[in-house]
Structure formats: C-alpha cells, structure tokens
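Box 3.1. Reading complex inputs
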Amino acid sequence: MSDATLPTAAAPARRETGRARRESRRVQFVLIAVSLAFLLFFLLLPLATVFVEAAARGWEAYRAAITEPDALAAVRLTLLVAAIAVPFNTIVGIAAAWAIAKFEFRGKNLLISLIDLPFSVSPVIAGLVFVLLFGAQGYFGSWLQAHGVKIVFALPGLILATVFVTFPFVARELIPHMQSLGSADEEAALTLGASPWRTFLTVTLPNVKWSLFYGILLCNARAMGEFGAVAVVSGKIRGETNTMPLHVEILYNEYMGPAAFAVASLLAGLALVTLVLKTLLEWHYGDAIAASRRH
Amino acid sequence: MTVTASFRWREPSILPGFGLALGVTVTALSLIVLIPLTGLFAKAAGAGPADIWAVATSPRTLAALRLSFAGALVAALVNTVFGLILAWVLVRYEFPGRRLIDAAVDLPFALPTAVAGISLAAIYAPNGWVGSWLAPLAFRVTIPFTDIAFGFDGKVAYTPLGVMVALIFIGLPFVVRTVQPVLEELQGDVEEAAALLGASRLRTVFCVVLPPVLPALLTGFVLAFARAVGEYGSVIFIAGNIPMVSEIAPLLIVIRLEQFDYAGAAVMAAMMLLISFALILAVNLVQAKARRRYGDV
C-alpha cells in the first residue's frame, strides 16, 4: 500500500523542486530590467555617443580629422609602441608562466603577487616612476643629458610606461591554464628524446595557444588605449610623442569635439574588434580560458 | 634526534629551463616594476620630514585623496550591488540578447579610458543626452533645526558625481566576472533542500545561495576599488577638476609634476600606494577568513 502511494507523493515534490530554484516571473522581469537599464546608462550610451558624435559633421569632416598629419603620426606612434611593448610582455609572460606553472619553489606566491602589482598601481604613478628615474631632475637625468639620450618625453619613455601597465596581462592568462594542464605532456616528450626547445615549441605552445592569444589580445588593447601612464611621460609634442589617446585629449581640450570623437571612434572600433575576438575565443575555447577567468 | 637538512628552495623536476624562465621574469619585473617603484619611495623619503608633512597635510592633498578613495568606495559598492544582479541575471535567466549582453559587460576593459572619458562627459554634461534630463530633478533638503543639508543640484558632469559615474563605468566588469563563475558552479541541491524545508525564496537566496558567493563578491569589490582609486583617463574629462572639489589624487600628482615639484608628486604617489596596499591587505585577510568558512570558491 505504501508502495502505491509513494509515486503520487513524490510527484508534487519534484515539481516543487523545479520551482524552488526560480524566482517569480515578476521578480525576474524586474531584475532583468534593472540590469539592462544599468548597462544602457553606463555602457551602451557611452559607446553609441562616440560614433554619433564622430559622424555629427559628416563624412568629409570625419575623413579630414583622421587623415590630418598629426592624427596619422599619432596612429603610427601608437602602433609602434604596441609593436614593441606587447611582444616584450608576451615573452616575459611566457617565461613567468613556465617558471610558475611547471616548478615548485619558495617565494612563488610572492612572485605571482609582484607580477600582478601593476594592476593596483595608478597609471599616473606608472608614468611618474620613469620621470623620477630618467627626467631632467631624476636620478639618471644629468647623466642621460650629458650623453644625449632622451627617455622621458620620447619614445623609450612611452614604451617603458606602456610595458609597466600591461606587464601582468599575458602572464595571468597563461599561469592558471598551464597549471591546470600539468607537466605530463612535456615529461613524455623529454623522455622520448625531444630537445627542451622542441618540447616547448611543439608540445607546450600548441597546448596553450588560445589562452596565450587571449592574453596578447587584452595586453594589446590596453597598450594601444593606455592614457594616464603615457600622458605623464609623453610631453605631448604634436606629431612626435602624441599617441592616439593623447591626441584625442588635445583635440577635445581645444574644443574640437567632432575631430576628437573621430579619432576616438578608431579606438572604439579597436575595442569592439577586441571584444568580438575575445567573445569568440571564450565561446570556442572556453575550457582553456575558463581556467584563467576563474581566479 | 635527527634533523634532516632538507631545505630546498625548489622541488626537483626533470623539466628544463627553470633558471632561464625565472631569470627572465625576475630581471624584467625588477627593471620595469620593482626598481622604478623603489625609486619612487626613495624620492618621497628623500624629501625630508618637513616637506613630506607639508605635502601630506596640505588641504588640497587631503581633499584629492578623500575624493579618490571615497569616490572609489562608492563606485565599487554600486558595482557590487549591480554586478551581483547582473551576474545573477546572466547565469540564471533566459532572455533574448543574453549572450550579447554577457559579451558587452567587458567593454570597459577594452575601451580606452580617454574615449570613455570624453563620451561620458558628453552624455552627462548639462546639455547632453542624459544630463539635460537630470537638470529638472534638482532638489535640496535641509534637516530641520540643523545645518545639515543635502540634495542634488541637477548636475552630474563637472561635479564629484561625475567622478563617480566614470569610476562606476571602469569598475563595472570586475564584480560580474568574479561572481559569474561561482554562481554557475553552485549545486542546486542545498537550495532545493532549503525550499522543501519551507524557507521562503528570499530567505533561501540570502541564507543559502549568497553566502558561498561572498568571497568572490569581495574579490570583485576589491578589484573594482583598486582600479577606481588610481583611475585617471576616464575621470579627468567629466570631473571638471575644480581644486578641493572635484580634483582627484592622480590629477594632483600630474599637476605637481607639471610644476616640476617632483618631491611633492612622489610623496603623494607614495601615500596613495601605501593606503591602497594597506586596504587591499586588510581585505585579503578578511577574505582568507571568509574562504576558510565557506570553502575555496
């Protein structure tokens, strides 16, 4: 008899559990509406404004703003700085991930914290430290001046400041992924007689290529868009030490709003491309990247 | 009594390249980050006690630090509340455009801060899309029999409120991205048990679902706060930069530097770093406690 009553008693309970993890439709609707409104005012409107303001004076004005010599010089400089800073941080990031993920040693946690340190330093301070070292009144200022080397208010300063602020990006994507993969593949390759470099190039790199690309993508976006750190070391000499974000600032402060937004729209386009690639990577290679998103 | 002399600073491994990899890492880290930061503290310390005291206690320094830290605190709290709601909605509900919105959350990571700055300033300026709607909402309340008054004068851009708008923008993804994976991995059984035992939905959420999310929420809060304290690019366009009112600490560092007051800039930067590090350390200690209690999430 009790056997016969059991199913009927369990059935409503199961329906109950399905509902137990859900809020009422009204609550769901309110929470979704709150989320969308928040994103509208803080994300979508700012993004849309860039393109609307850029297009405000028509195509000709837009083309003129992004093809004038100073704008082109800014684009070139931004690309040049990123082309040096990003590969540098990629190599260092791979080295850091290899040491941290594949070996056990004392002080590892301290090293990880120190690699992440630039994230908690204001970009302005990241620029300031190089002015204090290499500026006219800095520790090495007079020596550099005597030897005719310019670091601050010149390309080397821009690169140093950019490397500082983008230092952790590649390493912090690679470390968790390489840690989750372990060392068994590399040990097998070495045991089978592969040289260390061959093991690294044909076993390790292919295993982590998507999280590596993910890190490089984020590193590049920050390197090209960095403002505070380069603003301090650049001196903002037009056509010489002005990167794209600094050019946007100068135009904006000279009340050339549409031109500022035109150059800004190029940077916003870069951000959108970054976002699309990043999302595609997350959808297709989520497992590799999920490891790094969860720490 | 035998004492094994087993001090090893690294576990043996058959993998090669430890020396090279660690050497490259430590050299680059020292040259780019550690030595320059040490130079900053040396410069600040070298200013001498009288000058350090003068910079540290000048009303303009204190006002800027107060704005940067209080603004970052408010922005991080706003982002904690809305970030939790956003993560919840993205993980648990199905609605059209959910994946698109999920991707859009990371926009502040990708959009250069100067671009965000001029765009936010244009929107929240008195004649902007949002700013022009806010002007009629001005109000002022004075608490009877006191001098305490508060209100909203209808302006966001070029006031401390503008600073907060920019700081909310740049801190937005942190809480969502730290809370989301934890929510995804929560097992439903405890929640179902709570419901079957008769707990209301609200009580289930606050007493069963959210406690294990707390450490992640705290991590997101700290990341958003740390980012907001030092933020410069997105803030300076919308802040108006009025000394003592809407001038943030990083801007005051830049101003001192432009006046060739290197020591003053270094002292202020060192103060900012020390306060941030102390706060982050304190929160990490609280978090270690939370982790011990709710497991490693």
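In summary: Residues 46-127+158-294 of chain B form a domain with the MetI-like fold fold (CATH 1.10.3720.10).
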